[in-house]
Specification:
Segregation and condensation protein A; about 5% strand; mainly alpha; about 45% helix; about 300 residues; three-stranded antiparallel sheet; chromosome partition; two-stranded antiparallel sheet; 9 helices; ScpA
């Protein structure tokens, strides 16, 4: 007898037993291993899939409120509604825009009446425009229909506001001091900077013209050819400066004779200054000009 038949017979012989209590026919093993298909997860929380909405989920009462203070005014809200739905601003569907505008205002009027007051004024204007558009157009004296559009003033205000708002964005994009960049400052110790007297090169020119004027007073009208050497006058100036620390400009030309000699003597002095063998100094404007040997460190 097979084990299955023996178990059936044994169950039938037990008190209160019946064939109806016998186990069902054996089921194939692969059918038991197949799991039922799971529903797709609609969200994930900390990486774990959520297959159904939690029963203890708490949503604060003010979590979904819309605050009108996010807009800069009624025109900003109205322009947002028009641009969001790609309405033609020159042909505004007043019924749809007014309905959506009132929905926004109703959500804030319950909590902040002071903030909603300005928006309610615009809502009244929208309702007035909508009502005027529903009225039949009146006939003018010349039997022509009055083609005035009640939305014209509102469209003009919206276009002006949008233009000003775009200009404000462009101005705000310009780099501003102390917001986008800073201006560096550098402290300079003034005591370490040498201060030189504020002298004018014209003082040297005026001194030279004064010497030239005095030289003309002692000139002779005798015409003669005279060979003058700049090198000789340079040597003469150096010898004169070796005996004195400072020599006044006019004293260098004493005893030089006429204008040709004075000119050559002045050219010799400029050559020495060019070669940095002498220095021409002046303490302050209109002060005497002095000539001395150039300082050479030991």
């Amino acid at each position: 007898m097979l084990p299955e038949e023996a178990a059936t017979e044994e169950l039938a012989t037990e008190p209160g037993g019946s064939l109806s209590d016998a186990p069902a026919a054996p089921v194939e093993l692969p059918a038991l291993l197949e799991a039922p298909p799971e529903a797709p997860a609609f969200a994930r929380l900390y990486g774990e899939p959520l297959l159904r909405m939690p029963t203890d989920l708490f949503i604060p009462p003010d979590a979904l409120e819309i605050f009108l203070d996010a807009f800069e005014g009624p025109l900003d809200l109205l322009l947002y509604l028009i641009r969001k739905q790609n309405f033609n601003i020159l042909d505004i569907p007043m019924a749809q825009v007014t309905l959506q505008y009132l929905k926004y205002v109703d959500q804030i009027r319950l909590h902040n009446l002071e903030l909603a007051a300005e928006y309610l004024l615009m809502a009244a204007m929208l309702i007035e425009i909508k009502s005027r558009m529903l009225l039949p157009q009146r006939v003018a004296d010349d039997d022509l229909l009055d083609t005035y559009d009640p939305r014209a003033d509102l469209v003009r205000r919206l276009l002006d506001y949008e233009q000003i708002k775009l200009a404000a964005y462009e101005i705000n994009a310009i780099p501003q001091l102390d917001r986008d960049f800073t201006r560096p400052s550098l402290f300079v110790e003034q005591s370490n900077i040498p201060t030189w007297p504020d002298v004018d090169p014209l003082d040297l020119q005026r001194a030279w013209l004064d010497v030239l004027k005095r030289a003309k007073l002692t000139q002779h009208h005798r015409i003669s050819r005279q060979e003058l050497s700049v090198r000789e006058h340079m040597t003469s100036i150096l010898r004169q400066l070796q005996t004195a620390r400072f020599v006044e400009f006019a004293d260098l030309f004493q005893g030089q004779g006429g204008v040709p000699i004075v000119v050559v003597h002045f050219v010799a002095m400029l050559e020495l200054a060019k070669e940095t063998l002498i220095e021409i100094t002046q303490a302050e404007p209109f002060a005497p000009i002095y000539v001395r040997l150039a300082y050479s460190p030991a």
